[in-house]
Queue: 2 jobs
Job 1
Amino acid sequence: MNHLPDQPDPWAFMQSHTPARIAQGRTGHSLPTRALLAFQLDHARARDAVYSGLSGDELLTSLETIQAPVLRLHSQAADRTQYLQRPDWGRRLNDVSRTVLAGFTNDADEKQFDLCVVIADGLSATAINRHAVAVVSGLAEAIRKLGWSLAPLCVVEQGRVAIGDEIGHALNAETVVVLIGERPGLTSPDSLGAYLTFGPKPGLTDEARNCISNIRPEGLPYEAAVQKLLYLLTEMKNRRLSGVQLKDEFDDNLLTP
């Protein structure tokens, strides 16, 4: 049997500009073995991220350094299997978590919290474990400089984006930011997303939210993500709206690398 040597791809130079699978070369009519094995490894990492779990105690300990109460909550999805099969259960808190929130709810006569930050595992707890503390720390420091009040930080297991609306409403928060693990990609199993909503309440849908995606050192760095978050939150507070009604007009050239 004749051996078919790897044939280099003339577009290989583009690999220095993108992590995408481009110019992988070929052996005959197939990928080289090294490229095929790399694909299988990245696919395994993406699958592992979907089934990863929050590093509970370690995450809570790190968040406590931000000097805000930290609440550990849970959605109606009891485990990962239910979470994946019943998305609706991941959007609502279970009864125990609602009782926990009730103990921190502001009285009607008191001022609203300016911001509630919810941290949910989503489809990649790996992203939360790696990036959430750095983003929350930077955001908390920035809003305190503005004199804004911060609600208790809420860590939610088996949570989806919409669960932030219930939490923000229960805590009487003016705005809510949900930091959540995004659907893993073959080159990004740890991408963190941020979803922002003004006037959170149960029943809102995606058009009421703004989104910042791919927060991680290889994508949108932490400091730049905090800058964009602060811009959107300030616009929400000034204009009293969010989602499709609020256009992101931030000049990305002003972002700190």
Job 2
Amino acid sequence: MSLPTLTPQQAADKIRNGAVLIDIRSNAEFAGKHINGARSVPLDQLSNNPLPVSSDDIVIFNCLSGMRTRQNAEILQRHAASCREVYLLEGGLNAWQQAGLPIEAKPGQPLDMMRQVQIAAGSLVLLGFLLGQWVSAWFYLLCAFVGAGLIFAGLTGFCGMAKLLARMPWNRV
């Protein structure tokens, strides 16, 4: 079963009337920018922590683009089952910003993890290719290793590179 969605304006109206906005992105993403008044409950920590809501609350879940909330709607609904109403913010933080609604942004925060993984994986593939061309064909194995890692991450949902990058000093919140 999928959860109903709200446009940014509809969500803003409900928030003004007391709805609780739950941001399911990582702590680092939330620290970089988030919707004013949102509460951070990262998706990976949701099973360990109860939602900071009561049974009388209207809950709206958001992420960056709305994709994570849609993909995890069943899990989110299960965790908010006792709430009065549960919604997803259509288009996430991106749509909220495009609608001209207020956000809280802190410049100088790290890039979101997906972009860091894309930059690191792309850099390693390019490095492996260039070294394979100029130094030794053995360096092409680096490209294959990164490609295999990306396929594994896509199939299993576990990304070793993201786990490694999350431990880097610039990603500590």
